[in-house]
């Protein structure tokens, strides 16, 4: 024989957490201390979740800042490279080579250091012109 946990004479209360008194005669009384503990636990849980979400957002912001810094640095370098003397038209996909003369003047050449024997300048680097007209160091 099964015993019922619900007495048919007692009303059914849907949300027992919102009333300040026990809903059944066998329930312990709900004290102010119980309510304070419940609120404290809820507050701590919510604060923990909020802190976790805010930490994630902070990391995302830092990653975006780092990415923006790299983009700006690359753009500044590309602008400086475009200002270097060049006696030919730069086109997308073209590989060009950077040299520096003894006077300190830099210039671009189509000849690589292997192709240019007895070069009057010091080889520095080779670049490929990207579709956005930026420079990809090779």
* Sequence of secondary-structure elements: HEEEE
Major sheet attributes:
4 strands, antiparallel
Shape: rod-shaped
What would the average pLDDT be, to the nearest integer? 83
How many domains comprise the coordinates? 2
Strand order of the largest sheet: 2-1-3-4
Q: Count of DSSP helices?
A: 1
Which regions contain 5 or more consecutive residues with pLDDT less than 50?
Answer: none
Considering DSSP H and I runs of 4 or more, what fraction of the residues is helical? Answer: 25-40%
- First-to-last CA distance: 85 Å
Q: Approximately how much beta-strand content do the residues carry?
A: 15-25%
Question: How would you sum up this structure, described in words?
Answer:
This protein is an alpha+beta fold. The chain folds into 2 domains: 15-83; 84-138, no CATH class. The chain has 1 helix and 4 strands. The protein has one helix spanning 32-82, and strands spanning 95-101, 106-109, 121-129, 135-137. It has a 4-stranded antiparallel β-sheet, covered by helices on one side. A hairpin with a 4-residue loop joins strand 1 and strand 2 (106-109).
Q: Could you write a compact summary of the structure shown?
A:
The chain is of the alpha+beta class and 138 residues long.
Topology:
Layout: H1 32-82, E1 95-101, E2 106-109, E3 121-129, E4 135-137
Antiparallel strand pairs: 1-2, 1-3, 3-4
Notable characteristics:
single chain, 138 residues, alpha+beta, four-stranded antiparallel beta sheet, 1 helix, rod-shaped
């Amino acid at each position: 024989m099964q015993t019922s946990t619900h007495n048919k004479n007692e009303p059914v209360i849907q949300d027992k957490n919102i009333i300040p008194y026990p809903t059944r005669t066998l329930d312990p009384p709900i004290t102010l201390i119980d309510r304070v503990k419940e609120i404290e636990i809820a507050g701590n849980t919510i604060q923990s979740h909020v802190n976790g979400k805010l930490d994630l957002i902070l990391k995302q912001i830092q990653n975006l800042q780092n990415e923006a810094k790299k983009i700006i640095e690359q753009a500044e370098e590309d602008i400086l490279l475009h200002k270097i003397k060049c006696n030919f038209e730069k086109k997308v996909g073209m590989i060009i080579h950077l040299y520096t003369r003894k006077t300190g003047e830099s210039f671009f050449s189509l000849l690589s250091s292997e192709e240019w024997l007895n070069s009057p300048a010091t080889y520095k680097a080779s670049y490929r012109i990207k579709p956005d007209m930026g420079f990809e160091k090779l």
